[in-house]
Amino acid sequence: MAPHISYPGVYIEEIPSGMKKIRFVPTSITGIVGSFVKGPLNVAKRVKSWKECTHIFGELNKKHLASYSVKQFFDNGGTTLWVVRTQPQISPTAPALIQGVHALAKVQSLNIVVIPETHQLETRAASIVYREAISLAEQHQAMYILDPPYQGRNSMPSAKMTSWVARQKTLGHSQVVIYAPSVQVRDPRTAKHTTRIPASGTIAGLWARIDHTRGVWKAPAGTEATLRKVQSLERQMTTQEMEGLTNKNINALRRLPSNNIVTWGSRTLSSDPEWKYIPVRRMALFIESSVQRGTQWVVFEPNNEALWANIRQSVENFLQGLFRKGAFAGSKPAEAYFVKCGHDTMSANDRQIGKVNIIIGFAPLKPAEFMILTIQQEAQALGKS
User: Fold this and answer.
1) Does 17 have pLDDT greater than 50?
2) What pLDDT shows up at residue 8?
3) Which of 2, 156, 277, 307 has the lowest tally of Cβ within 10 angstroms?
4) Which of 16-20, 105-109, 228-232 has the lowest mean pLDDT?
């Protein structure tokens, strides 16, 4: 209805659009499980800064490696962290960490999982925690930055790590990544000493920083992927050692001639060549999560051609926004992405029972072949209102 005009002026009547906007979901909300000096047990608490974390969970403590990982997360650019404090023990145990993982699973939105104290477990105990962490990552469409178990007082040498990874069949997952070696960070209370910690918290912060400055589609590696507040690496690997790690999809850390310490790889542990690279896998998870969340409204709509047209337009607008940001390969939209939703994606039975299948193709920056995603939503079944 037009507004009643009682005096001169300019009037604009806002007419609601049938188009539903798909918003970008977060990409770097991180969850960490580990022991801390204080704080509630097995309850996920969100913190937005190192200072806020210390109020709840206490200061740095060498008996609690997770505290150093949290500080590294924020030092390297992380902004949102869910922290779960596990049952305090003399040393970490698999049951305590698993209980913490179950507490973290209750968080609604999660993109990255780190459990740095698996670095202090023996191989068999660590494997139990890894299985639970991978399940959590699958549940939340998240990535798990895995820290390998210890070998005595040191991390695994590169040759032993490659053979260990090759034996761990359950770790060959597109949502699991490993970085090596461990990093040395300075304890701010002692100017002369450093503490060796696993790299996961540092890497999670780096991912968050690259996501913010470049986008989730940018590989978090190379000269701009500098690790902040890292004094040194546990050891400087040779070119041959780094090649050996890369061949097993383990991402090496290295010190450049400029003295900067950077990540020198961007691979998942998957043997599937489609999901070989971290930015490709994370980009797919980001698109899936955004579209799934942004099309939940279809549950209230009849499963007909009008609905399919609205879905296609909404998803195309979302992908066009990414294209403009440089997220895809290709010089024009037709070379960068496509969306299908209609008779060519749904059977007669799908339409009858209310299943809506959305097929999305996109060309990641590397490799440039199209990746295909299928997303399913529930609409009203035919004959229902």
Assistant:
1) no
2) 47
3) 2
4) 16-20
What separation in angstroms does the CA of 295 have from each of 120, 138, 327, 373? 43, 20, 21, 15
Whole-prediction pTM value? 0.92
Residues 6+ apart with CB under 8 A from 25: 109, 286, 289, 290, 293
Residue 89's closest CA among 99, 76, 75, 81? 99
| Stronger pLDDT, 324 or 88, i.e. the higher one | 324
What span, in angstroms and rounded, lies between the C-alpha atoms of 180 and 198? 8
pLDDT digit string (tens) for 278-308? 999 999 999 999 999 999 999 999 999 999 9
The phi, psi pair for 46, rounded to 5°, reads: -85, 130
Summarised one tens digit per residue, pLDDT across range 206-224 is: 999 999 999 999 999 999 9
pLDDT at 154 over 90: no
Q: 30-213+221-265: what CATH class?
A: alpha beta
- Residue ranges of domains in the chain: 30-213+221-265, 280-378
| Secondary structure string (H, E, C) spanning the chain | CCCCCCCCCCCCCCCCCCCCCCCCCCCCCEEEEECCCCCCECCEEEECCHHHHHHHHCCCECCEHHHHHHHHHHHCCCCCEEEEECCCCCCCCHHHHHHHHHHHCCCCCCCEEECHHHHHCCHHHHHHHHHHHHHHHHHHCCEEEECCCCECCECCCHHHHHHHHHHCHHHCCCCEEEEECCEEEECCCCCCCEEEECCHHHHHHHHHHHHHHCCCCCCCCCCCCECCCCCEECCCCCHHHHHHHHHCCCEEEEECCCCCEEECCCECCCCCHHHCEHHHHHHHHHHHHHHHHHCHHHHHCECCHHHHHHHHHHHHHHHHHHHHCCCECCCCHHHHEEEECCCCCCCHHHHHHCEEEEEEEECECCCCCCEEEEEEEECECCCCC
Euclidean distance between CA atoms 174 and 277, whole angstroms: 9
Phi/psi zone of residue 42: left (φ > 0), alpha (ψ -120 to 50 degrees), beta? left
> Of the CATH numbers 3.10.450.690, 3.40.50.720, 3.90.550.10, 3.40.30.10, which one belongs to the domain with range 280-378?
3.10.450.690
